[in-house]
Amino acid sequence: MESLKDRKKRIDSINEVSESFCLAKWLQVTIDLVHGTNHSCHHPRRHLIPLEELEQNPSALHNTKFKKEKRKEMLEGRRPSECEYCWQIEDSSGPEKSDRLIKSLDHWAYPHKDRIANSHYEDDVAPTYVEVMFDKGCNLACGYCIADVSSRIEQEIKKFGPYEELIDHRLPRNEKISDDETTNPYVIAFWKWLPTIIEGLHTLRITGGEPLLSVNTFKVLDYLLENESKDLTLAINTNLSVKDVVIDRFIKKLKPVLQKGNIKKFELFTSVDAYKEQAEYIREGLDYDKMLSNIRKFKEELGVDVIINCTFGVYSIPKFKLFLQDILELKKDYGRVILDISYLNHPRYLRANMVTEDLHSYIKESLEFMGGRVSEFGGNEFSEYELEKFKRVYHWIVSKERMDQKNQNRADLYTFVTQFDKRYNKDFLTAFPEYKDFMLNCKKSYYFVKKLTIGEDYV
Ligand code: SF4
């Protein structure tokens, strides 16, 4: 285990390059092949990969001219505005570290620090951590997600149109290149580029949509069955809410890749952000119990690491302690189930920091629950790493936000749930009875901000 002194030394060495230097800008990429876009990590908005750049250079899937400009800013100590997520954490009151530092210290990044720090900003760099989206087919329509990465949301927007009074909410942001994975020029370029970077690749992570619904996910398994990549960690982001037959097929194909030792390991990433009915409310289509039982299936059949991504939003708060209890049970039964908590930034009106102060006690209670059950990383309880990430979210929630922004977010939350409920035949207050008073507050904000009179719903 690294000492605090050694960790500080490594952090200092990153900040010595510059106070905005982040290795993820060079070494990590999420590529959306459906729309021909990428971003260096999940936080900045996706930007277009111009086809003309790609024609001359397949590594433009990662090394776009746009991104090279952001690298230049970092090398010169300027903060790229697209990385606002990290600057908010670095400017908030808590002592926890931003993702800029957490990512830069990671195994796939830090060993390359000197090479990157001494490179020219225009150099093409082979990433060590690639996340790729082949297809946007998805069986879920999560409340915070967008049509660009979910075919179900795309269908929702086609059926009901845009959300009224919420500019751009859930609407497609980029134009789809092709519905056909087999003829999409970005997918074709990816399959040309992969063999050139696979040797130095630490992690290849497949995302979606729901990647278990993509033919290319299974093609990756076929590729890895034929081609060894001994240092590679293969990972998949799945909602674990697809049919049993699909899960079973995936496990059956993955098993020989692992048994032959063709890759270093496999990691299963899944996402859930709240407890049972509250999780199912915000992640339309999720079957919470099924998701938990599928985690057990992967553990029992393959013994792989499971990472649960939790994007903590307004919907997470009331029953989060019960959710932590479920995760703890998984940890006790299997070990190596990691909970990775970050705060939801977009859309603003699902942010956890808009709740009234009386609701902070739920978060404190959950923090105390977690804090009382801490042992080593990957063990049968929560780790310091998991606790630190939750504390970071807590500090962000309780730090000052401008009142006019809070009011706007509350008004927009009211606007959103009113329409979301109608579209999916849901009832927000049935799922969130703890928010009765808070929702009244949101409704008042709505009329204060938008109409200046009180209406009938939710009163
Ligand atoms: S600074 Fe933060 S937002 Fe920007 S690339 Fe690094 S981790 Fe991502």
TrEMBL record:
Requisite cofactors: [4Fe-4S] cluster
Keyword tags: Iron, Iron-sulfur, Metal-binding, S-adenosyl-L-methionine
Record has Transferase as a keyword: no
GO molecular function annotation: catalytic activity; iron-sulfur cluster binding; metal ion binding
Top-level lineage group: Bacteria
InterPro entries: Aldolase_TIM, Radical_SAM_PqqE_MftC-like, rSAM, rSAM_sf
NCBIfam families: N_Twi_rSAM
Descriptive protein name: Radical SAM core domain-containing protein
Species, as recorded: Halobacteriovorax marinus (strain ATCC BAA-682 / DSM 15412 / SJ) (Bacteriovorax marinus)
